[in-house]
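Can you please make up a protein's amino acid sequence together with its fold in token form to help me picture the idea?
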Amino acid sequence: MHTNDNPAASTPPAGDIHDPAEAIVRAAESALTVRRRYQFFVWTQSYLSRLLPHQLAVCGAYDRASRELVFDVFNSVSLEPVLMDALGDARSLLMQHWQACWLEARGKPAVLQTADLAFASLGTVRDALLAAQFRTVLVHGVSRPQRPQEIESFFVFAAQDDTALAALAGRLELLLPHIHGAWQRVQAVERDVVGISAPQPTPIRVGGVTQREREILGWLREGKSNQQIADELGISALTVKNHVQKILRKLGAANRAQAVAQAMTLQLLDRTPAAPLPRSRAMP
């Protein structure tokens, strides 16, 4: 991946955007360059997160083949497997409930409270959301013209600072056309890529990335520092730093966020958070 050729892969320098209107223009312009899933992830972590801070983004697009929404989950904090399963399943009661709430809001951004998930069957998922400190979620989507019940795309954003997120519904309304357009473009491009090359089983080593490097990528996705990863794996922080540098070179990434995004595209990461190895088995 040549990040210099993709403006969406470059995070704006901190503090260079003070005017929200200018930030929206920059986000819209950079969204036009997004064509792959890893580019979308980097865009959400840079341009979009400056306008809509979040640690969880769930993005759904209608799939003609399966005749239902298909969801991808992008998270920068650790989530329990039961929650990941519910977020990624279009037929789960959680996702069906959130879509129904959005339709009841007549297609406007909806701020939903996790505590209101009163269904007995959603108790475990509700507890997992609260454990991740997601007390509020912001949902919005796009329906077919004149057919509001037929959802073309659906997005969920959650932040641990729920007060700030709840105040940004109007901003999401302005950003939605660009989020929708970028995500639809990703789906179209990646369908074409799959159509060109037959699916191949993922080898143990993809792009030269070793199993240990995949474990470290899993912790990078969780936002762990070198020292925290070292503590989990029973190795030195310097060894972790060396692994990270190798990962960046192998994936052609300029920073950790880009490496995680590329790893997600290459399916190097499991959906569930990485688990620490027993200390007696950890090797540098």
The domain at 206-284 is CATH 1.10.10.10 (Arc Repressor Mutant, subunit A). Residues 71 and 89 are 7 Å apart (CA to CA). The beta strands are 56-63, 68-75, 110-113, 136-144, 147-158. The longest strand covers residues 147-158.
